[in-house]
Amino acid sequence: RQPKAFLFDEPLSNLDAKMRVQMRTEIIRLHQRLESTMIYVTHDQAEALSMADQVVLMRDGRIEQDAAPAELYERPATAFAASFVGTPPMNLLPLDASPHGLVVAGTSGPVLAETPGGHLSDLVVGVRPEALLPGAGPGFPVTVTDLDYQGADTVLVCDLGGHNLLARVPGHAAAAQGSELQLTCAATDLAFFSAADGRRVALSAVDPANQPHILGGVV
Hints:
With 219 residues, the protein is α+β, with helices and mostly antiparallel strands. The protein has helices at 17-34, 45-51, 69-74, 79-84, and strands spanning 5-9, 37-41, 55-59, 62-67, 91-98, 101-104, 123-127, 133-135, 140-149, 153-160, 163-170, 180-184, 191-194, 200-201, 213-214, 217-218. The N and C termini lie far apart (71 Å).
C-alpha cells in the first residue's frame, strides 16, 4: 500500500518524556523519507511546534489559527492562541487610556501605544515572558512575588499594578522575593488584542524602555 496521507492520533501520549523526544525525531525522519502528508493530532504544543510544517490550532471544534509554527508563536492571531502556545504562556494584561497613551490598567506607565481613535476600546496587551528582561532603565515597575528555578532558566512571578506578570530569565535570577525590578522589552515584543473577541489589533507600539518614566508616573 502507498497511502497518500497518514493520521497520527496522539501516538506518544503514553510514553515518558525522554522517549517522546526520541520518537518525535523518528517520526520526523519517517516523514522526510516517505515524503507523504502526515496529519498529527496532539495536545502537546512542543510536539506541534517541533514537528509540524503547518499547525492548525483548534478551539471548541473551530480553527483558531492555521499557520507555520514560528508564525503561530511569534504572531498569534488571537488572545487564545497567544495564551495557549508557549511555556510559560504569553502575559495578557488589560489596558487603560492615560493622557499620554495606553498603559497597563492600574499603573501609570510605561506608555505602550498611542490611544487609538474611533470606538476601539477594551484592549489587552500581550508580551512573552522571555521577552521581559530586568534592566536599570525605564520599564515595567514590578515586585517579585515568587521565583521558579528551572535549571537553565528562572521564571520570575511578579506583581504589576495588581496583575500577575511572568518573566523568564536565563540561569539564576539576581532577584529575591519581595524585590522591586524594572522589566524592559522591545516594542516589537508587544501584541495587542481586543478584549471583546480576542482578535489581534494593529497598533503602533511604543518602546517601554525608551521613554521618560518614573515609579510615580510618566513625565
